[in-house]
Write a structure and sequence with these properties.
Layout: H1 19-24, E1 59-64, H2 73-82, E2 92-100, E3 103-111, E4 130-132, E5 138-140, H3 150-154, E6 161-162, H4 180-186, E7 220-221, H5 227-230, H6 237-240, E8 247-251, H7 258-265, E9 268-269, E10 281-284, E11 294-296
Parallel strand pairs: 1-10
Antiparallel strand pairs: 1-8, 2-3, 2-11, 4-5, 6-7, 9-10
Length: 304
């Protein structure tokens, strides 16, 4: 995979603002406001991208809604890969209902982080923890994050999550329960860990900590396009585990890539593109959601 080299902008003094320093300066708690997901109806055949400097790689995702049947396997894959806490979904598949019986239409819409080129979550971060990489990813340096949650409020897609505690639980299966024996037979007795060691450490090209934020208390977490897999030349977990190839992922700057060919051959739209956020996630098939849609079968965390 091509290595991305990016020159860091001059942010002034090198001293980092710590969480304690920020609180002393009067940092206020921010309450999450829920934003709607009604998109513009404008579609286009060829995407118009802002120029990207210092790299020939810019990652983008194309989601084919005509193929999605709402199985939510991508959500499972994301949670297992990143071990996000209960009720936290870096990838979420909306199930929508439109009309009244007997004329009812059901549709589905996956929603990862949009990794916007003009990311509204980057601008309000007071310590530079949220930033835009040259390869298109919007990342969070959890070692620098002070948990002010400004990015959570600024994002119109509701994809940012505050970690209220450290994630130390094997939440997918009680391995001491009798029903776990059948699974252990398949795994040779091995117990999958609660954390993915590939998420630890720093990531190129900036050498910043952007993978394991979901395990740390008091910081923000969100979809990373599985940056730890990208560095190994692998696809994001949601893409790799979709049973019907809803997701396409690759370098949009390469005219021969799969995503580029799709976007030049089929009409596409982006979620809330009228806000000028320039998302790196494109949808083909179906139409943008409207206020006529009702969400059904929503998923949340367990009560206990």
């Amino acid at each position: 995979m091509t290595e991305v080299i990016r020159e860091q902008p001059d942010r002034g003094p090198k001293k980092e603002l710590t969480r304690r320093d920020f609180l002393k300066k009067g940092g206020a708690a921010v309450v999450l406001t829920t934003a709607g997901l009604v998109a513009s109806s404008r579609v286009f055949a060829a995407p118009v991208e802002e120029p990207v400097t210092a790299t020939d790689v810019k990652y983008a995702m194309v989601i084919d809604l005509d193929r999605c049947y709402g199985c939510r396997a991508c959500m499972e894959a994301c949670k297992v890969e990143n071990n996000t806490p209960e009720g936290v979904f870096w990838m979420y598949v909306f199930r929508f209902e439109e009309g009244r019986y007997p004329k009812v239409r059901i549709s589905y819409m996956p929603r990862p982080c949009m990794h916007c080129d003009n990311a509204p979550c980057v601008k309000p971060c007071p310590v530079g923890a949220r930033y835009k990489r040259a390869d298109g990813l919007v990342a969070t340096d959890w070692k620098r994050c002070i948990g002010c949650r400004y990015c959570e409020v600024a994002c119109p897609y509701s994809v940012n999550y505050f970690n209220w505690g450290e994630q130390k639980k094997r939440q997918y299966l009680d391995w001491d329960a009798p029903e776990a024996r059948a699974v252990q037979q398949l795994t040779g007795g091995a117990i999958p860990p609660y954390e993915n060691p590939d998420l630890e450490g720093t990531f190129k090209p900036e050498g910043r900590y952007i993978g394991a934020g979901s395990h740390m208390r008091g910081v923000m977490g969100k979809c990373t396009f599985c940056v730890h897999r990208l560095e190994k030349g692998l696809l994001p977990a949601c893409v790799a585990n979709c049973p019907v190839q809803v997701y396409h992922f690759g370098n949009i700057n390469d005219p021969e890539s799969g995503v580029s060919k799709l976007l030049h051959s089929r009409p596409a739209w982006r979620l809330l593109e009228e806000l000028g956020t320039l998302p790196s996630v494109y949808y083909i098939g179906s139409t943008p959601p409207t206020s006529a849609l009702r969400q059904i079968e929503a998923i949340g965390g367990r009560k206990s």
